[in-house]
Amino acid sequence: MKQTYDINVEAFLPLTAPDEFKKLLPIPPESEDAVINGREEIKKILTGEDNRLMIITGPCSIHDEKAALEYAEKLCVLREKVKDTFDVVMRVYFEKPRTTIGWKGLINDPYMDDSRDVMEGLRRARKLLIDITSMGMPTATELLDPIIPQFIAGLVCWAAIGARTTESQTHREMSSGLSMPVGFKNCTDGALNTAINSMIAAKSPQSFLGIDQHGKACIVKTKGNPYAHIVLRGGKRPNYDSVSIREAVETLKKQELSQAIIVDCSHANSGKKFAGQAIVWNDVINQCINGNSAIKGMMLESNLCEGNQSMSCGPENLEYGVSVTDECISWETTEELILSGHEKLSGKI
Ligand SMILES: O=C[C@H](O)[C@H](O)COP(=O)(O)O
Ligand SMILES: C=C(OP(=O)(O)O)C(=O)O
């Protein structure tokens, strides 16, 4: 018999069903409260019911849970200090979309050695989300693989669809069923229309193929996500300036879509250089002081230490607290930017 299918598949490896997997790492009551409250606060900021700004800050990617927890502890203290002005949410990114190839994040390759033990990656990701939300810290992540939400999404308060997948029907369909607000990045060349089309698709009910809680293949029917919004991350040129933001707001208004704008201070807005993030941050804070109420939040790529490092030295030789993907600002700079933004905005928003 000739074979016409699975020609390029090496193996089918077992995946534990989400309900079985979650029994091993159940959500504790304090995490559940943090997730529910975290989502509610974000929704209120996006709709303007709460005038504060949402700050999504944390490593470009998680590769070391010890460093991530140290970061989360520091962020908890800072979150409390600035709570009248900012709703601070931790970036806890486990899935990395690559331009070509590269390490795809903790879930895909937790041992960082190409062994790609996805089940172990899911376990470590869920455990870290439990530990962080147990501190009362709301969480943000990028969702890339459409099956992964069944394993971790119950611990996530805000999700991003990245610049490389914002035009993908699969990601729009997935977003329409997600339980948290979803931010669509503009695509890598800077075009807004892809993210705007995503918002329309994500708001609408959809049907697509997925798995249920028992791990069984099924047709997922969704209700639509009412909290889809845009994240400006720059493209061929930055798009955090007041003219770009006004243009985005006008385009969204014409389409009768949410005009809430989140500015990503990193990526193409910073020229992918960590030092560029402070320039974007300060400009956006000034726009808020000058009364731009469409801006609902900012994202920072931040780690314990600044810059980034190559993974070629092997996981055991990595420098502690330094990003293995995009450049990040240091904890000290993060604290300085957030505290100075808080001081400038106190009583003004
Ligand atoms: O935020 C992370 C990166 O910008 C994104 O995953 C792409 O990375 P790459 O161009 O190094 O593959
Ligand atoms: C990959 C990311 O961003 P973008 O999709 O904007 O490149 C990210 O935030 O990690």
From TrEMBL:
GO terms for cellular component: cytoplasm. Residues 43-336 form the DAHP synthetase I/KDSA domain. InterPro entries: Aldolase_TIM, DAHP1/KDSA, DAHP_synth_1. It holds the Pfam family DAHP_synth_1. The keyword Cell cycle does not apply. Pathway: Metabolic intermediate biosynthesis; chorismate biosynthesis; chorismate from D-erythrose 4-phosphate and phosphoenolpyruvate: step 1/7. One of its GO terms (biological process) is chorismate biosynthetic process. Keywords: Amino-acid biosynthesis, Aromatic amino acid biosynthesis, Transferase. One of its GO terms (molecular function) is 3-deoxy-7-phosphoheptulonate synthase activity. SUPFAM superfamilies: Aldolase. Its EC number is 2.5.1.54. It catalyses: D-erythrose 4-phosphate + phosphoenolpyruvate + H2O = 7-phospho-2-dehydro-3-deoxy-D-arabino-heptonate + phosphate. PANTHER family: PHOSPHO-2-DEHYDRO-3-DEOXYHEPTONATE ALDOLASE DAHP SYNTHETASE, PHOSPHO-2-DEHYDRO-3-DEOXYHEPTONATE ALDOLASE, TYROSINE-INHIBITED. Stereospecific condensation of phosphoenolpyruvate (PEP) and D-erythrose-4-phosphate (E4P) giving rise to 3-deoxy-D-arabino-heptulosonate-7-phosphate (DAHP). Belongs to the class-I DAHP synthase family. This is Phospho-2-dehydro-3-deoxyheptonate aldolase. The lineage of its organism: Bacteria, Pseudomonadati, Thermodesulfobacteriota, Desulfobacteria, Desulfobacterales.
